[in-house]
Design a protein that fits this description.
alpha/beta, 2 domains, 7-stranded mixed beta sheet, 12 helices, binds flavin-adenine dinucleotide, binds sodium ion, EC 5.4.99.9, UDP-GALP_mutase, FAD, isomerase, UDP-galactopyranose mutase activity
Length: 387
Amino acid sequence: TQYPDLVIVGAGLFGLTVAQQAVEHAGARVHIIDVRDHIGGNAYSYFDKETGAEIHKYGAHLFHTSNERVWKYVNRFTEFTNYVHRVYATHDGVVYPLPINLGTINQFFGKAYTPAEAKALIEEQAGELAGTDPQNLNDKGIQLIGRPLYEAFIKNYTAKQWQTDPAELPASIIKRLPVRFNYDNRYFKDTWEGLPKDGYTAWFERMIDDPRITVELGVDFFDETQPYNRKALQAAGVPVVYTGPIDRYFDYELGDLKWRTVDFKEVRYAEDDHFGCPVMNFSDSDVPYTRAIEFRNFNPERADSYTPGRTVVWEEYSRFAERGDEPYYPINTDEDKALYARYAEKAAAEPRTVFGGRLGTYKYYDMHNVIDTALTAYEEQVAPLLG
Ligand code: FAD
Ligand code: NA
Protein backbone atom coordinates (compact mmCIF):
# COMPACT_ATOMS: atom_id res chain seq x y z
CA THR A 1 0.00 0.00 0.00
CA GLN A 2 1.14 3.51 -0.85
CA TYR A 3 0.39 5.23 2.46
CA PRO A 4 -0.66 8.89 2.80
CA ASP A 5 1.19 11.40 5.03
CA LEU A 6 -1.31 11.02 7.86
CA VAL A 7 -4.02 8.53 8.81
CA ILE A 8 -6.86 9.66 11.04
CA VAL A 9 -8.95 7.13 12.90
CA GLY A 10 -12.41 8.62 13.45
CA ALA A 11 -14.34 11.12 11.29
CA GLY A 12 -15.73 13.00 14.30
CA LEU A 13 -15.06 16.69 14.91
CA PHE A 14 -11.58 16.02 16.31
CA GLY A 15 -10.50 13.98 13.28
CA LEU A 16 -12.09 16.33 10.74
CA THR A 17 -10.46 19.39 12.31
CA VAL A 18 -7.00 17.81 12.33
CA ALA A 19 -7.45 16.66 8.71
CA GLN A 20 -8.47 20.14 7.60
CA GLN A 21 -5.49 21.72 9.39
CA ALA A 22 -2.99 19.19 8.01
CA VAL A 23 -4.01 20.04 4.45
CA GLU A 24 -4.19 23.78 5.03
CA HIS A 25 -0.86 24.15 6.85
CA ALA A 26 1.26 21.26 5.59
CA GLY A 27 -0.35 20.33 2.27
CA ALA A 28 -0.50 16.80 3.64
CA ARG A 29 -2.35 13.90 2.02
CA VAL A 30 -4.73 12.61 4.68
CA HIS A 31 -6.75 9.42 4.84
CA ILE A 32 -9.61 9.23 7.35
CA ILE A 33 -11.19 5.92 8.35
CA ASP A 34 -14.30 5.44 10.45
CA VAL A 35 -15.99 2.24 11.54
CA ARG A 36 -19.42 3.87 11.17
CA ASP A 37 -21.17 4.41 7.84
CA HIS A 38 -21.12 8.22 8.08
CA ILE A 39 -18.83 11.13 8.98
CA GLY A 40 -19.41 13.54 11.88
CA GLY A 41 -19.03 11.13 14.79
CA ASN A 42 -21.61 11.76 17.48
CA ALA A 43 -22.54 15.14 16.03
CA TYR A 44 -23.82 13.54 12.80
CA SER A 45 -27.38 14.30 11.69
CA TYR A 46 -29.66 13.34 8.80
CA PHE A 47 -32.92 14.62 7.38
CA ASP A 48 -35.96 12.50 8.18
CA LYS A 49 -37.81 11.61 4.97
CA GLU A 50 -41.30 11.55 6.44
CA THR A 51 -41.29 14.82 8.39
CA GLY A 52 -38.36 16.81 6.95
CA ALA A 53 -36.89 17.24 10.45
CA GLU A 54 -33.11 17.10 10.99
CA ILE A 55 -32.50 14.18 13.34
CA HIS A 56 -29.37 14.29 15.51
CA LYS A 57 -28.63 10.58 15.44
CA TYR A 58 -26.71 10.45 18.74
CA GLY A 59 -28.85 12.88 20.71
CA ALA A 60 -29.56 16.63 20.67
CA HIS A 61 -26.52 18.69 19.64
CA LEU A 62 -26.52 22.44 20.28
CA PHE A 63 -23.55 24.49 19.24
CA HIS A 64 -22.38 27.17 21.66
CA THR A 65 -19.01 28.75 22.49
CA SER A 66 -17.29 31.75 24.02
CA ASN A 67 -14.02 30.85 22.30
CA GLU A 68 -13.31 33.36 19.52
CA ARG A 69 -10.78 31.15 17.73
CA VAL A 70 -13.35 28.35 17.53
CA TRP A 71 -16.23 30.62 16.52
CA LYS A 72 -14.17 32.11 13.66
CA TYR A 73 -13.05 28.66 12.59
CA VAL A 74 -16.51 27.06 12.42
CA ASN A 75 -17.92 30.05 10.55
CA ARG A 76 -15.57 29.26 7.66
CA PHE A 77 -17.62 26.13 6.98
CA THR A 78 -21.19 26.98 7.89
CA GLU A 79 -23.56 29.77 8.78
CA PHE A 80 -25.46 29.46 12.04
CA THR A 81 -29.13 30.10 12.76
CA ASN A 82 -30.15 32.35 15.64
CA TYR A 83 -31.40 29.37 17.68
CA VAL A 84 -31.26 29.88 21.45
CA HIS A 85 -31.54 26.74 23.58
CA ARG A 86 -34.32 26.54 26.17
CA VAL A 87 -35.55 23.48 28.03
CA TYR A 88 -38.84 22.78 29.79
CA ALA A 89 -39.77 20.12 32.34
CA THR A 90 -43.01 18.30 33.04
CA HIS A 91 -43.60 17.65 36.76
CA ASP A 92 -46.85 16.43 38.27
CA GLY A 93 -48.84 17.39 35.17
CA VAL A 94 -47.47 20.93 34.97
CA VAL A 95 -44.82 22.34 32.60
CA TYR A 96 -42.03 24.49 34.10
CA PRO A 97 -39.08 26.38 32.59
CA LEU A 98 -35.55 25.13 33.29
CA PRO A 99 -32.86 25.62 34.53
CA ILE A 100 -34.61 26.33 37.85
CA ASN A 101 -35.22 30.09 37.82
CA LEU A 102 -37.57 32.62 39.37
CA GLY A 103 -40.28 31.58 36.89
CA THR A 104 -39.94 27.93 37.99
CA ILE A 105 -39.99 28.90 41.67
CA ASN A 106 -43.00 31.18 41.46
CA GLN A 107 -44.96 28.69 39.37
CA PHE A 108 -44.05 25.85 41.73
CA PHE A 109 -45.02 27.68 44.93
CA GLY A 110 -47.87 29.62 43.28
CA LYS A 111 -46.36 32.94 44.39
CA ALA A 112 -44.99 36.22 43.09
CA TYR A 113 -41.68 36.27 45.01
CA THR A 114 -39.11 38.94 44.24
CA PRO A 115 -35.55 37.69 43.62
CA ALA A 116 -34.60 38.46 47.25
CA GLU A 117 -37.67 36.73 48.67
CA ALA A 118 -37.09 33.62 46.54
CA LYS A 119 -33.46 33.53 47.57
CA ALA A 120 -34.34 33.75 51.26
CA LEU A 121 -36.91 30.96 50.87
CA ILE A 122 -34.50 28.59 49.13
CA GLU A 123 -31.81 29.30 51.70
CA GLU A 124 -34.24 28.51 54.48
CA GLN A 125 -35.31 25.25 52.81
CA ALA A 126 -31.69 24.26 52.12
CA GLY A 127 -31.04 24.86 55.84
CA GLU A 128 -32.72 21.54 56.60
CA LEU A 129 -29.33 19.82 56.40
CA ALA A 130 -27.19 22.81 57.43
CA GLY A 131 -23.92 21.92 59.11
CA THR A 132 -23.92 18.33 57.83
CA ASP A 133 -21.50 16.90 55.28
CA PRO A 134 -23.75 14.93 52.89
CA GLN A 135 -22.20 11.71 51.59
CA ASN A 136 -24.95 10.79 49.15
CA LEU A 137 -26.42 12.72 46.25
CA ASN A 138 -29.89 12.91 47.80
CA ASP A 139 -28.71 14.76 50.92
CA LYS A 140 -26.38 16.91 48.88
CA GLY A 141 -29.26 17.95 46.60
CA ILE A 142 -31.42 18.91 49.58
CA GLN A 143 -28.54 20.88 51.08
CA LEU A 144 -27.98 22.78 47.83
CA ILE A 145 -31.54 23.84 46.89
CA GLY A 146 -33.89 22.58 49.63
CA ARG A 147 -36.12 19.53 49.63
CA PRO A 148 -39.18 20.82 47.67
CA LEU A 149 -37.33 21.86 44.48
CA TYR A 150 -34.83 19.01 44.75
CA GLU A 151 -37.56 16.38 45.00
CA ALA A 152 -39.63 17.94 42.20
CA PHE A 153 -36.94 18.57 39.57
CA ILE A 154 -33.73 16.70 40.44
CA LYS A 155 -34.35 13.54 42.42
CA ASN A 156 -36.29 11.34 40.01
CA TYR A 157 -34.58 12.72 36.92
CA THR A 158 -31.18 11.85 38.42
CA ALA A 159 -32.45 8.40 39.43
CA LYS A 160 -33.43 7.79 35.78
CA GLN A 161 -30.08 9.11 34.47
CA TRP A 162 -28.10 6.76 36.70
CA GLN A 163 -30.67 3.99 37.11
CA THR A 164 -29.81 4.23 40.79
CA ASP A 165 -31.59 5.75 43.81
CA PRO A 166 -29.80 9.09 44.50
CA ALA A 167 -29.47 7.99 48.16
CA GLU A 168 -27.10 5.31 46.80
CA LEU A 169 -25.10 7.68 44.58
CA PRO A 170 -22.00 9.51 45.82
CA ALA A 171 -22.51 13.19 46.67
CA SER A 172 -19.49 13.99 44.48
CA ILE A 173 -21.57 13.59 41.27
CA ILE A 174 -23.02 17.08 41.84
CA LYS A 175 -20.91 20.05 42.83
CA ARG A 176 -23.67 22.63 42.48
CA LEU A 177 -27.27 22.89 41.33
CA PRO A 178 -27.64 26.27 39.71
CA VAL A 179 -30.73 28.30 40.63
CA ARG A 180 -31.33 31.64 38.91
CA PHE A 181 -33.11 34.32 40.87
CA ASN A 182 -34.42 36.05 37.76
CA TYR A 183 -36.52 34.96 34.78
CA ASP A 184 -33.60 34.15 32.47
CA ASN A 185 -34.14 30.61 31.16
CA ARG A 186 -31.57 30.77 28.37
CA TYR A 187 -29.82 27.42 28.81
CA PHE A 188 -26.27 28.37 27.76
CA LYS A 189 -24.31 31.40 28.92
CA ASP A 190 -21.92 31.50 25.97
CA THR A 191 -21.22 34.48 23.73
CA TRP A 192 -22.18 32.62 20.54
CA GLU A 193 -24.89 30.06 19.96
CA GLY A 194 -26.76 28.61 16.99
CA LEU A 195 -27.36 25.61 14.76
CA PRO A 196 -25.68 24.98 11.40
CA LYS A 197 -27.97 26.47 8.77
CA ASP A 198 -27.93 23.51 6.34
CA GLY A 199 -27.46 20.90 9.04
CA TYR A 200 -24.47 19.35 10.79
CA THR A 201 -23.46 17.00 8.01
CA ALA A 202 -23.24 19.73 5.35
CA TRP A 203 -20.91 21.63 7.71
CA PHE A 204 -18.68 18.59 8.20
CA GLU A 205 -18.53 17.79 4.47
CA ARG A 206 -17.22 21.30 3.76
CA MET A 207 -14.41 20.84 6.29
CA ILE A 208 -12.92 18.00 4.25
CA ASP A 209 -13.86 19.15 0.76
CA ASP A 210 -10.34 18.84 -0.67
CA PRO A 211 -8.86 16.26 -3.05
CA ARG A 212 -5.98 15.62 -0.62
CA ILE A 213 -8.44 14.26 1.98
CA THR A 214 -9.94 10.81 1.41
CA VAL A 215 -12.51 9.15 3.65
CA GLU A 216 -13.27 5.47 4.00
CA LEU A 217 -16.31 4.40 6.01
CA GLY A 218 -17.14 1.06 7.61
CA VAL A 219 -13.44 0.42 8.34
CA ASP A 220 -12.19 -0.70 11.76
CA PHE A 221 -8.65 0.35 12.72
CA PHE A 222 -8.21 -2.94 14.58
CA ASP A 223 -9.26 -5.11 11.63
CA GLU A 224 -5.96 -6.51 10.37
CA THR A 225 -7.47 -7.54 7.03
CA GLN A 226 -7.66 -3.89 5.93
CA PRO A 227 -4.50 -1.93 5.08
CA TYR A 228 -5.03 0.99 7.50
CA ASN A 229 -4.82 -1.16 10.61
CA ARG A 230 -2.81 -0.38 13.69
CA LYS A 231 -0.04 -2.92 13.17
CA ALA A 232 0.54 -2.16 9.48
CA LEU A 233 0.63 1.60 10.01
CA GLN A 234 2.98 1.26 12.94
CA ALA A 235 5.32 -0.99 10.94
CA ALA A 236 5.33 1.52 8.06
CA GLY A 237 5.92 4.45 10.46
CA VAL A 238 2.85 6.36 9.25
CA PRO A 239 1.70 9.09 11.68
CA VAL A 240 -1.72 8.28 13.13
CA VAL A 241 -4.31 10.39 14.92
CA TYR A 242 -6.47 8.04 16.97
CA THR A 243 -9.86 9.25 18.27
CA GLY A 244 -11.34 5.89 19.33
CA PRO A 245 -11.49 4.64 22.94
CA ILE A 246 -8.04 4.71 24.57
CA ASP A 247 -8.66 1.50 26.55
CA ARG A 248 -9.61 -0.33 23.33
CA TYR A 249 -6.31 0.78 21.71
CA PHE A 250 -4.42 -1.07 24.44
CA ASP A 251 -6.75 -4.10 24.32
CA TYR A 252 -8.26 -3.13 27.70
CA GLU A 253 -5.11 -4.53 29.28
CA LEU A 254 -5.37 -2.30 32.38
CA GLY A 255 -9.17 -2.63 32.61
CA ASP A 256 -12.25 -0.90 31.15
CA LEU A 257 -12.94 2.82 31.55
CA LYS A 258 -16.57 3.37 32.57
CA TRP A 259 -19.18 5.28 30.55
CA ARG A 260 -22.87 6.00 30.51
CA THR A 261 -24.79 5.55 27.29
CA VAL A 262 -28.20 6.59 25.99
CA ASP A 263 -30.88 4.62 24.12
CA PHE A 264 -33.50 6.33 21.96
CA LYS A 265 -37.05 5.30 21.20
CA GLU A 266 -38.57 6.96 18.15
CA VAL A 267 -42.21 8.04 18.33
CA ARG A 268 -44.19 9.67 15.52
CA TYR A 269 -47.25 11.84 16.03
CA ALA A 270 -49.91 12.89 13.50
CA GLU A 271 -49.59 16.50 14.63
CA ASP A 272 -47.74 19.59 13.43
CA ASP A 273 -46.06 20.03 16.80
CA HIS A 274 -46.31 17.74 19.84
CA PHE A 275 -44.44 19.54 22.64
CA GLY A 276 -44.14 23.10 21.36
CA CYS A 277 -40.40 23.07 22.25
CA PRO A 278 -37.34 21.04 21.18
CA VAL A 279 -36.53 19.43 24.56
CA MET A 280 -39.02 18.38 27.23
CA ASN A 281 -37.60 16.84 30.41
CA PHE A 282 -39.74 14.50 32.47
CA SER A 283 -38.94 15.03 36.13
CA ASP A 284 -41.09 12.25 37.61
CA SER A 285 -40.60 8.50 37.93
CA ASP A 286 -43.88 7.57 36.20
CA VAL A 287 -42.33 8.44 32.80
CA PRO A 288 -39.45 5.98 32.26
CA TYR A 289 -37.37 8.20 29.94
CA THR A 290 -35.46 11.29 31.03
CA ARG A 291 -36.41 13.60 28.20
CA ALA A 292 -37.95 13.82 24.75
CA ILE A 293 -36.47 15.59 21.74
CA GLU A 294 -38.77 17.01 19.06
CA PHE A 295 -36.33 17.71 16.26
CA ARG A 296 -38.42 20.00 14.06
CA ASN A 297 -38.46 22.57 16.85
CA PHE A 298 -34.70 23.08 16.66
CA ASN A 299 -35.18 24.65 13.25
CA PRO A 300 -38.37 26.73 13.20
CA GLU A 301 -36.92 28.64 10.23
CA ARG A 302 -37.46 25.50 8.12
CA ALA A 303 -41.25 25.49 8.72
CA ASP A 304 -41.98 25.54 4.97
CA SER A 305 -40.02 22.34 4.35
CA TYR A 306 -41.80 20.28 7.04
CA THR A 307 -44.60 17.80 6.31
CA PRO A 308 -47.83 19.15 7.81
CA GLY A 309 -49.48 16.94 10.42
CA ARG A 310 -46.34 14.84 11.05
CA THR A 311 -43.67 15.16 13.71
CA VAL A 312 -40.96 12.87 15.05
CA VAL A 313 -39.87 12.63 18.70
CA TRP A 314 -37.06 10.67 20.33
CA GLU A 315 -37.47 9.54 23.92
CA GLU A 316 -34.12 9.29 25.70
CA TYR A 317 -33.22 6.52 28.16
CA SER A 318 -29.94 6.63 30.05
CA ARG A 319 -27.92 3.68 31.42
CA PHE A 320 -24.44 2.34 32.15
CA ALA A 321 -22.55 1.35 28.99
CA GLU A 322 -21.24 -2.16 28.48
CA ARG A 323 -18.36 -2.97 26.13
CA GLY A 324 -19.83 -2.66 22.60
CA ASP A 325 -22.34 0.07 23.55
CA GLU A 326 -21.79 3.63 22.34
CA PRO A 327 -19.76 5.30 25.13
CA TYR A 328 -21.34 8.76 25.68
CA TYR A 329 -20.58 10.26 29.08
CA PRO A 330 -17.42 9.35 31.02
CA ILE A 331 -18.39 8.34 34.56
CA ASN A 332 -15.12 9.74 35.86
CA THR A 333 -14.94 8.35 39.38
CA ASP A 334 -11.55 8.72 41.07
CA GLU A 335 -10.87 5.12 40.09
CA ASP A 336 -11.63 5.90 36.41
CA LYS A 337 -9.39 8.96 36.51
CA ALA A 338 -6.51 6.94 37.93
CA LEU A 339 -7.00 4.24 35.29
CA TYR A 340 -7.11 6.85 32.53
CA ALA A 341 -3.86 8.36 33.81
CA ARG A 342 -2.18 4.97 33.41
CA TYR A 343 -3.49 4.58 29.87
CA ALA A 344 -2.42 8.15 29.06
CA GLU A 345 1.12 7.25 30.09
CA LYS A 346 1.14 4.37 27.63
CA ALA A 347 -0.34 6.64 24.94
CA ALA A 348 2.44 9.18 25.44
CA ALA A 349 4.97 6.42 24.78
CA GLU A 350 3.48 5.59 21.34
CA PRO A 351 5.89 7.65 19.24
CA ARG A 352 3.88 8.34 16.08
CA THR A 353 0.31 8.17 17.38
CA VAL A 354 -1.58 11.17 18.72
CA PHE A 355 -4.58 10.40 20.92
CA GLY A 356 -7.42 12.91 20.79
CA GLY A 357 -11.10 13.63 21.15
CA ARG A 358 -13.50 12.51 23.82
CA LEU A 359 -12.82 8.77 23.48
CA GLY A 360 -9.07 9.07 23.02
CA THR A 361 -8.70 11.23 26.14
CA TYR A 362 -11.69 9.98 28.22
CA LYS A 363 -13.24 13.43 28.66
CA TYR A 364 -16.67 14.91 28.24
CA TYR A 365 -16.14 17.57 25.61
CA ASP A 366 -18.67 19.80 23.96
CA MET A 367 -18.13 20.34 20.24
CA HIS A 368 -16.37 23.66 20.74
CA ASN A 369 -13.95 22.05 23.24
CA VAL A 370 -13.16 19.27 20.80
CA ILE A 371 -12.44 21.72 17.99
CA ASP A 372 -10.24 23.84 20.27
CA THR A 373 -8.23 20.84 21.49
CA ALA A 374 -7.92 19.58 17.90
CA LEU A 375 -6.51 22.92 16.69
CA THR A 376 -3.97 22.84 19.52
CA ALA A 377 -3.16 19.15 19.03
CA TYR A 378 -2.51 19.83 15.35
CA GLU A 379 -0.03 22.62 16.14
CA GLU A 380 1.73 20.93 19.04
CA GLN A 381 1.64 17.22 18.24
CA VAL A 382 0.63 16.49 14.65
CA ALA A 383 2.50 19.17 12.67
CA PRO A 384 5.90 17.99 14.02
CA LEU A 385 5.14 14.45 12.79
CA LEU A 386 4.50 15.74 9.27
CA GLY A 387 8.08 17.02 9.19
P1 FAD B 1 -16.68 11.27 18.15
O1 FAD B 1 -17.69 12.20 17.61
O2 FAD B 1 -17.15 10.19 19.05
O3 FAD B 1 -15.87 10.63 16.94
C1 FAD B 1 -15.02 9.51 17.10
C2 FAD B 1 -15.15 8.64 15.88
O4 FAD B 1 -14.18 7.60 15.94
C3 FAD B 1 -16.51 7.96 15.77
O5 FAD B 1 -17.14 8.34 14.56
C4 FAD B 1 -16.17 6.48 15.83
O6 FAD B 1 -17.00 5.69 15.00
C5 FAD B 1 -14.74 6.46 15.36
N1 FAD B 1 -14.02 5.25 15.80
C6 FAD B 1 -13.91 4.79 17.07
N2 FAD B 1 -13.20 3.65 17.10
C7 FAD B 1 -12.84 3.37 15.81
C8 FAD B 1 -12.12 2.31 15.19
N3 FAD B 1 -11.63 1.27 15.89
N4 FAD B 1 -11.93 2.35 13.85
C9 FAD B 1 -12.46 3.37 13.11
N5 FAD B 1 -13.15 4.40 13.65
C10 FAD B 1 -13.35 4.39 14.99
N6 FAD B 1 -21.61 18.88 22.24
C11 FAD B 1 -22.05 20.16 22.14
O7 FAD B 1 -21.26 21.07 21.86
N7 FAD B 1 -23.38 20.46 22.31
C12 FAD B 1 -24.30 19.51 22.60
O8 FAD B 1 -25.48 19.80 22.75
C13 FAD B 1 -23.86 18.15 22.72
N8 FAD B 1 -24.74 17.17 23.01
C14 FAD B 1 -24.30 15.88 23.12
C15 FAD B 1 -25.22 14.87 23.40
C16 FAD B 1 -24.81 13.56 23.50
C17 FAD B 1 -25.81 12.48 23.80
C18 FAD B 1 -23.42 13.24 23.35
C19 FAD B 1 -22.94 11.82 23.47
C20 FAD B 1 -22.52 14.24 23.06
C21 FAD B 1 -22.93 15.56 22.95
N9 FAD B 1 -22.04 16.59 22.64
C22 FAD B 1 -22.48 17.88 22.53
C23 FAD B 1 -20.59 16.31 22.49
C24 FAD B 1 -20.15 16.04 21.04
O9 FAD B 1 -20.83 14.92 20.54
C25 FAD B 1 -18.64 15.78 21.06
O10 FAD B 1 -17.98 16.91 21.53
C26 FAD B 1 -18.03 15.46 19.71
O11 FAD B 1 -18.85 14.64 18.93
C27 FAD B 1 -16.72 14.74 19.95
O12 FAD B 1 -16.01 14.54 18.75
P2 FAD B 1 -14.84 13.47 18.71
O13 FAD B 1 -14.26 13.54 17.36
O14 FAD B 1 -13.97 13.63 19.88
O15 FAD B 1 -15.57 12.06 18.97
NA1 NA C 1 1.68 9.56 21.47
